[in-house]
Amino acid sequence: MKIIHTADLHIGSPLAFLSENDRKIRRIELLDSFKRLVMYAKENAIKYILLSGDIFDKDKVNKADKEYFYQIIEANPDLNFYYLRGNHDTNSALDKDNIKNLFLFNNDWKYYYIEDVCISGIEVSEKNINTIHQTLNLNKENYNIIMLHGDSKELIINKFKNKYIDYMALGHIHTYSSNVLDTRGNYVYSGCLEGRGFDELGEKGFVIIDTNEKKHTFIPFATRIVYEKIIDITETNSLYDAIEKIEEVTNEVPDKSLLKLIIKGTVKYDATDIESRLLVRLKSRFFYYEICNKTKKLLNLDEYKNDISLKGEVIRTITSKNIAEEDKNDILNYCLRLLNGEDIEL
Ligand SMILES: [Mn+2]
User: Which helix (H) or strand (E) holds 15?
Assistant: First the structure.
């Protein structure tokens, strides 16, 4: 039997860094990824989908989005959905216990049996966290799947060892990871279906559990991927060289992604213009991009040696101090930028 494990869709996320229009598009994509997942399940004859919490970003999610999510479930009665709520969507399914193909969980262990597969789960709270390990009751002969939402520390994963668990379908951590629980089972975070910001970088997707083969596979599935690239342009000799080097890196990032470029290094030329030189190409290729220009200029101190100005005075004072050359350059850079009226970030 094949079962899909997904979690942390966070439908209704604010996505505040995007423009109003892009935010609208991206929010629809978060919901649409769930619909694509259901289509994928149908095409691959997978009848069971586990939703391990935080399907909605918060309980007060847009009503239309919430209804649409449940309509996708109701429109596919041949698929079975197991929805265990997380810390963001505690009340999201309160009035949904009438949907025949939607199976919910609560604060006590609940067990659903499909042939020799047992899908169990419990919604963890402060009240039950210290007893959930003892109250779990599994049959050794079954293929046992446990659904939980929380990080491995708060769930006290070690206490689940040697309880006949084959697969722990977890939610809460937004990146896929699979770890050994004991000689029999694994505990797996499916991660979210779509990266929403620069704290959710890289491939996102879901997991297919194969209970016959006793294995599981991560399937990359995101509409767009969020990337962060750090580029050091210290070795470049001109703005043109720097742009070439940066474009070499950005060319490898797929179209329509979300990209943050962090450009750093100390250069001999003026690199303040980097952002505008990159604008045309980046704007046309990416859904969203931002540039963080952390470059510093290597100063030619001789130019200021006899300068009768506040700038000259500052430079003479700092250069005469007994500090490491590298630190000196940094301090001078900050001072000169302050004198230019710029805001600096230390
Ligand atoms: Mn969570």
Answer: none
Query: For the stretch 110-127, what's the b/e string if a residue is b when 16 or more beta carbons lie within 10 angstroms of its beta carbon?
Result: bebebeebbbbbbbbeee
pLDDT of residue 138: 96
Residues 6+ apart with CB under 8 A from 183: none
Protein residues placing their CB within 5 Å of the ion ligand 1: 54, 86-87, 172
CB 251 within 8 A of CB 282: no
Lowest mean pLDDT among 73-87, 102-116, 271-285: 271-285
Whether the Cβ atoms of residue 49 and residue 208 lie closer than 8 Å to each other: no
Q: What is the largest CA-CA distance in the chain?
A: 88
Q: What is the pLDDT of residue 90?
A: 79
CATH 3.60.21.10: which residues of the chain? 2-220
Reported pTM: 0.87
What is the pLDDT of the chain when averaged over all its residues? 92
Fold assignment, 2-220: Purple Acid Phosphatase; chain A, domain 2 (3.60.21)
How far, in Å, from the CA of 170 to the mean position of ligand 1?
10
Pairing of strands 258-264, 143-149: unpaired
Rounded distance from Cα 298 to ligand 1 centre (Å): 46
From ligand 1's centre to the CA of 257, what distance in Å?
Answer: 25
CA of 103 to the centre of ligand 1 (A): 19
In the reported structure, the alpha carbon of residue 57 is separated from the centroid of ligand 1 by a whole-number distance in angstroms of 9
Can you tell me which residue has the tokens 């797929």? Answer: 254
CA of 172 to the centre of ligand 1 (A): 4
Å from CA of 124 to ligand 1 middle = 11
